Amino acid sequence: MKFGETFTEYLHGDQEWFLDKCSHVEYKQLKKVLKSCRKSCKEAPASSSCGSESNHEEFCQCESCPLCDQKFFSELIKEASEIAGCFSSRVRHLLHLHISNGLQRYMLRLRHCFTNDKELMAQQSRMLIEYVTMNAIAIRKILKKYDKVHSSINGRNFRTKMRAEHIELLQSPWLIELGAFYINFNGTESGDLSNQFSCDLGSDRPVMTLTISDSLKLEYSLTCAICLDTVFNSYALSCGHLFCKACACSAASVMIFEGLKAVDPETRCPVCREEGVYANSVRMVELDLLLKNRCKEYWRERLHDERADGFDRPVDTQTFIVTVSVLVAISLSLFLGLKGDPVPCEKCAGNGGTKCVFCNDGKMKKETGLVDCRVCKGAGMVLCKKCAGSGYSRRL
């Protein structure tokens, strides 16, 4: 059976209710675009830019075909973006249900008493993996057909563009999270997806393997490119590279408590040197849970080292100043709050004094002229002796 028929059967199969809410590759329409291009090239004159008349019988020989490029690549990039967005949002929602906390955890446990959510979540994970793999194969097939029809490498270049725009489906960090989720959820690699997802954590180079077909097998390295060890408290940048949180923060020159969201947008990935990849980094919770359960001794050692390193790390000047300032502000507010609000003076009623009756605006007449009053000393007011002119005698 050809892939086009297989893909059509998949879209209208048992999972049609699930796929109705998701975007997918319009494989048939894209094939029609390529067929119309081939037909137009056959009817074109021999002097056209598509090549000689003998070449029109099979393929279009133009490296850039305006007829295809206007519809083909624009539609494909739109569909790939929608599929990547739909896949990431669905996986994020599924993982949120699996690793919940607080009140939501108790609500889910109460719900489990009445419904079998475990079987439903396993079914959703299988459908999501099949959804992303089928669409990824469809994109690869149609791009390969484009290169064959046009005798070009534009389809291959388009895949490179998809990686640069972070919409390559099989390179998504959410696919790694979904594989780790399925293994964690079942407690073992045996199951309906045992022939697809597997992980080898005992070797020097730990990997997670996704087997799509006999000819297509993808390996995802679980080694941090900075410390060259198995990732711990792992994060995936939007370019797809995995790092330990401490290593990623160190490479981006930020403190661990600040997190990767505080990284300068112009900071580059330590591996591919791409800018702006820290803002949309993904916390690999399921992958950490998998490593914690499978490599318990290693996880304890790394946790101990991270804590020891955190206590031994010298505090920088800026952090010290900010911490001291916050503590002083809190202490001052507590001190003033305990003393209470100021009370107006009983003698002067809060005025701070009374008008001097011995002078006029602080001046007295004398034989030599106007001089400052000796009582108010030119202030025009006799200050209250109880509050010393402040208007407040005491505090509660």
From TrEMBL:
The protein in question is named RING-type E3 ubiquitin transferase
Q: What organism is recorded for this protein?
A: Thalictrum thalictroides (Rue-anemone)
Entry's EC annotation: 2.3.2.27
Describe the reaction catalysed, as an equation. S-ubiquitinyl-[E2 ubiquitin-conjugating enzyme]-L-cysteine + [acceptor protein]-L-lysine = [E2 ubiquitin-conjugating enzyme]-L-cysteine + N(6)-ubiquitinyl-[acceptor protein]-L-lysine
Pfam families attached to this UniProt entry: zf-C3HC4
Pathway(s) served: Protein modification; protein ubiquitination
Write out the entry's keywords from A to Z: Metal-binding, Transferase, Ubl conjugation pathway, Zinc, Zinc-finger
Q: What residues does the SPX domain cover?
A: 1-160
Q: Name one GO biological process term.
A: protein ubiquitination
Please give the InterPro entries that the UniProt record associates with this protein.
Answer: BAH1 (IPR033326), SPX_dom (IPR004331), Znf_C3HC4_RING-type (IPR018957), Znf_RING (IPR001841), Znf_RING/FYVE/PHD (IPR013083), Znf_RING_CS (IPR017907)
Superkingdom of origin organism: Eukaryota
Q: Tell me the ranges covered by the RING-type domain, including all copies.
A: 224-273
Q: Name one GO molecular function term.
A: ubiquitin protein ligase activity
* Keyword Metal-binding listed: yes
Q: Give the main EC class.
A: transferase
